């Protein structure tokens, strides 16, 4: 099974900051990597699919990169509504797996 | 607009069964793979099961194999998760999620809470 490891587990930042979250797969997954945002008490929301493709309706300040085993999610200028928990997910093969999450908090 | 609405959650004793449902609308349900994803209280996301658009393929997370069964009725636009031999560690919010071509989950339901407790 493929293990997904995110770093950091938590992050404090200010509105307007640029932040990057990383995700590492335990084996090569090509670009089968997706990113989700989850706010408390809500369902996750797809942000990025296939490593770098922005889901419809997602603001352009979100971007994804990487291939193989190492991936990034970057928010170019944090907005108040971006404070949430972010998860990566590999869809290279089943069992699909998620990273443990990165909680982005207001500094 | 695409909507997924789960139902069937509740409190159940260990060893008992429960069936979850997920009603889809606003899209051609029969054209999409569907998934169940769960989240234990205060924990991260865990993929549980997948069923292909035509029920021709199913797959499960290891800890639920042999206990959970995913199915769908495309005539009713509904996805199911039959959960047998429930354990305390199955306690979670269960989400249904539509599968897209890259294995990403582009739409999610609001979730239904399953609590397994004596």
Helix content of chain B: under 10%
Assembly type of the chains comes to heterodimer
Low-pLDDT ranges of chain A: none
Mean pLDDT of chain A: 97
Distance between the termini of chain A: 36 Å
Beta-strand percentage range of chain A: over 45%
Task: Annotate the secondary structure layout.
The complex is a heterodimer of chains A (107) and B (118).
Chain A: E1 4-7, E2 10-13, E3 19-25, E4 33-38, E5 45-49, E6 53-54, E7 62-67, E8 70-75, E9 85-90, E10 97-98, E11 102-106
Parallel strand pairs in A: 2-11
Antiparallel strand pairs in A: 1-3, 3-8, 4-5, 4-9, 5-6, 7-8, 9-10, 9-11
Chain B: E1 3-7, E2 10-12, E3 18-25, E4 34-39, E5 45-51, E6 58-60, E7 68-73, E8 78-83, E9 92-99, E10 105-108, E11 112-116
Summarize the structure in words.
- The complex is a heterodimer of chains A (107) and B (118).
- Chain A is an all-beta fold and 107 residues long.
- Chain A is built from no helices and eleven strands.
- Chain A is globular and about 35 Å long.
- The model of chain A has no long low-confidence stretch (mean pLDDT 97).
- Helix content of chain B is 0%, strand content 52%.
- The mean pLDDT of chain B is 97.
- Chains A and B meet through strand 4, strand 5 and strand 10 of A and strand 5 and strand 10 of B.
Keywords:
heterodimer; A: 107 residues; mainly beta; seven-stranded mixed beta sheet; four-stranded antiparallel beta sheet; globular; B: 118 residues; 11 strands
Provide a brief overview of the structure.
The complex is a heterodimer of chains A (107) and B (118). With 107 residues, chain A is mainly beta. Chain A is built from no helices and eleven strands.
């Amino acid at each position: 099974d493929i293990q997904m490891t995110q770093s950091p587990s938590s992050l404090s930042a200010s509105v307007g900051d640029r932040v990057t979250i990383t995700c590492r797969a335990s084996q090569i997954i090509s670009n089968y990597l997706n990113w989700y945002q989850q706010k408390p008490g809500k369902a996750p929301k797809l942000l990025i699919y296939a490593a770098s493709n922005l889901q419809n309706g997602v603001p352009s300040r979100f971007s994804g990169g990487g291939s193989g085993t190492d991936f990034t999610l970057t928010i170019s200028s944090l907005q108040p509504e971006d404070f949430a928990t972010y998860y990566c997910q590999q869809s290279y093969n089943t069992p699909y797996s998620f990273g443990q999450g990165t909680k982005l908090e207001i500094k | 607009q695409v909507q997924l609405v789960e139902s069937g959650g509740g409190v159940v004793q260990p060893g008992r069964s429960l069936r979850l449902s997920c009603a889809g609308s606003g899209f051609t349900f029969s054209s999409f793979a569907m998934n169940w994803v769960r989240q234990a209280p205060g924990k991260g996301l865990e993929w549980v099961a997948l069923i292909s658009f035509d029920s021709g393929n199913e797959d499960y997370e290891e800890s639920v194999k042999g206990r959970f069964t995913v199915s769908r009725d495309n005539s009713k636009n509904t996805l199911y998760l039959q959960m047998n031999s429930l354990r305390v560690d199955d306690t979670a919010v269960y989400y249904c999620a539509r599968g897209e071509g890259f294995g990403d989950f582009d739409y999610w339901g609001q979730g239904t809470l399953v609590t397994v407790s004596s």
